[in-house]
Design goal:
Length: 392
């Protein structure tokens, strides 16, 4: 069960008890209500079972040492006030059961001392855990802010296209990683990039931020798509180490029916035309961004038609290199053909579910999918829109 759901139930119970406490005038009653509000259910169940055993067959004295498990368990599942409440309850019930069975005072004192010690240790543990949860929540908030700043949400419609993006970071607690994407309308048409930074962790995130920043700026300024790629290359050459690079596909739609693609060492996009899925391979292989100075080879621009109903899928190798238990790669083209529909968001959602099923539930590399579709114009829709806009 997630911490969020558990805290939600605890907060619901706490609000109920505190509302009840607000109607009482006695400070002792209010204090008791606050203790009960923070007391978890499972440790209370353990205490109730021990008391029930004692009432049924009178062997509660044998089970008295197990009372210490209640505050210990509360430390792992509740706030400090809940641990204190469980500790007080176990101490009172332990003393009552011990007195009922005539436990010697010295043995009873040892038991109570043990309960107090476990309660104090559990309270400290719970306080430290709560502090770490607050720190983790703050870190997650920063990560989400960074994600929205770097990997901005893609609207369902961009220029003349329907669009959808699905991004999954491999790290369980991460929101962003080394994969990158952007889709922006510019004076030179819609332009987009999907890329994969070499490496992982914060250095990869920093490189992704650099690439996206340069791309968004150059996409507006440069009329030629190759010049956009050139600016990214020059920026990376100044800022990256000798062994660092970024594979990427940069695409643009400068005019109706024409799509331009520049591939820099990245997996080829998939063009969907009708029921056919075709890889858009580059005219000639080009090095990844950041390595042009080593090879001396510049990327080529490939132009292709992009008509109504056509779709283009860009992705990273976290998708195509995902393996199942038999070490078989995920067949992206086949999966795309199976789940293709007229709504890019639905197509990507189905692909992602199948991808997770293929790998057994968790990806081991960042994975990004960006699907672009040119919708089919509805006959008469433009005339109808003009008629509605015309003055009556």
């Amino acid at each position: 069960m997630s911490h969020t759901r558990r805290r939600g139930r605890d907060h619901w119970r706490a609000r109920w008890y505190r509302r009840r406490a607000g109607h009482t005038a006695s400070p002792w009653t209010r204090t008791l209500a606050h203790l009960v509000a923070g007391t978890p259910a499972l440790p209370l169940l353990i205490v109730c079972v021990i008391v029930l055993v004692d009432l049924v067959d009178g062997t509660g004295k044998v089970w008295l040492p197990l009372l210490a498990t209640a505050p210990a368990l509360a430390a792992a599942t509740s706030r400090p006030v809940g641990v204190v409440g469980v500790g007080l309850l176990t101490a009172l019930l332990g003393a009552a059961i011990g007195a009922r069975h005539g436990v010697p005072a010295s043995a009873l004192a040892v038991l109570l001392a043990a309960l107090v010690t476990v309660t104090l240790a559990g309270t400290l543990t719970s306080a430290l855990r709560a502090h770490r949860e607050r720190v983790l929540a703050a870190v997650r908030s920063v990560a989400e802010t960074a994600q929205h700043a770097l990997l901005k949400p893609v609207p369902g419609t961009v220029g003349p296209f329907q669009a959808a993006v699905h991004y999954t970071a491999a790290a369980a607690e991460a929101r962003i990683g080394g994969d990158l994407y952007a889709l922006v309308p510019t004076p030179h048409g819609v332009r987009l990039i999907v890329g994969d930074v070499r490496g992982k962790g914060l250095p990869a995130v920093g490189t992704a931020a650099l690439v996206l920043g340069v791309f968004r700026e150059a996409a507006y300024d440069e009329p030629d798509l190759l010049d956009v790629v050139g600016r990214i290359e020059r920026s990376l050459a100044r800022n990256l180490g000798a062994d660092d690079f970024v594979t990427a596909v940069v695409a643009g739609y400068p005019e109706a029916g024409r799509l331009e693609v520049v591939n820099c060492g990245h997996a080829p996009p998939l063009l969907i035309r009708g029921s056919d899925v075709t890889a858009v391979d580059p005219v000639r292989p080009a090095p990844p961004l950041g390595l042009r100075a080593l090879s001396g080879e510049a990327p080529d621009l490939r132009a292709l038609s992009f008509d109504e109903g056509d779709q283009l899928l860009l992705y990273t190798d976290g998708v195509t290199e995902a393996r199942d238990e038999d070490r078989e790669f995920y067949p992206l083209a086949d999966g795309l053909a199976r789940h293709l529909c007229d709504e890019p968001a639905r197509t990507l959602a189905a692909l992602h579910e199948e991808l997770l099923a293929h790998v057994g539930g968790r990806l081991h590399d960042d994975a990004a999918l960006l699907l672009l579709r040119r919708p089919v114009a509805v006959p008469g829709a433009a005339d109808a829109a003009s008629a509605r806009a015309a003055p009556g």
